[in-house]
Protein: Dolichol-phosphate mannosyltransferase
Amino acid sequence: MPELAVVIPVRNEADNIAPLVAEIRAALAGRIPYEIVYVDDGSSDDTVQRIRALQATVPELRVVRHRASCGQSAAVRTGVRAARAPWIATLDGDGQNDPADIPGLWAMATGPDAPPGLGLVAGRRTKRRDTAAKRWASRIANGIRSRLLGDDTPDTGCGLKLFRRDEFLDLPGFDHMHRFLPALFIRRGQKVVSVPVNHRPRTQGRSNYGNLDRLLVSFGDLVGVMWLMRRGKRPDILPDDIHPGDILPESE
Structure:
C-alpha cells in the first residue's frame, strides 16, 4: 500500500499531464511508496485520454472524473477520498509547483524533528513566477486573510501542501476551502508550518481562474471561516476520568 498520495485536481491541462507525472516519479521513486491520483474536474479537452495512456506504463497512476466542473476544492476532496495512502500531498496541475519539493515537506511532517501536533505543511512561493496582477491580488488577499483569521501563513494560495488524509476529511467541507486550510487546521488545535518551495512559470495551457473572480468569492468565504473559527470548540478530555465502557465525545 502507498504511504503518500499525490492528489492533483485538473481541468483542461492535457499538455501538462505527462511532464508532471514524469517529475513526480523522478522525485518519489525509491524514496516513498506513493500513488498519483488525478481528479479530472469536467475537462473538455483530452486530459483524461492523456492520463489513461500513461496508466499503461505508470502503475501508480489513478484517475477520478467529475461529470461537470465542481471547482478546485471539490476536486481535492474527491481525490483525498479516493486515495488509499494515509498521507496526502496536493499539487496544482499546471506544472507551476515543483514535485521535487515534496520529499522536503514529507521529511518535515514525518521526520524525527516534526513539531508535536503538526497538522499541515504548506508550501510558500518565495519567488512567484506569475503576472504582476496575480501577485498583487494574492498579496491583498493574503494580507486581509492573515489579519482577520490569524493563521500565520504567508501564502495560502500555494497548491503544494501535505497533511494526513483522515485529518483533512475531518475538516468542514465547502467550496473554495483549499484557500483556508491553515485556519481550518488551526481550528482543530493543530500546528501549521510554512516551507519555502520552488515556483515556476506556466508554460502550457492557461489559468482557469481570474483575479477578480477569486477576490470576490474570497470575501464571502472569509466571513464564513471567521464564523467557524469563533464557533469551534475543542474539548480537552481528562485521561484520569476515562474508564472502560465510557463513550468519548467526537472531536470536531
Notes: The chain has a mean pLDDT of 86. The domain at 4-230 is CATH 3.90.550.10 (Spore Coat Polysaccharide Biosynthesis Protein SpsA; Chain A).
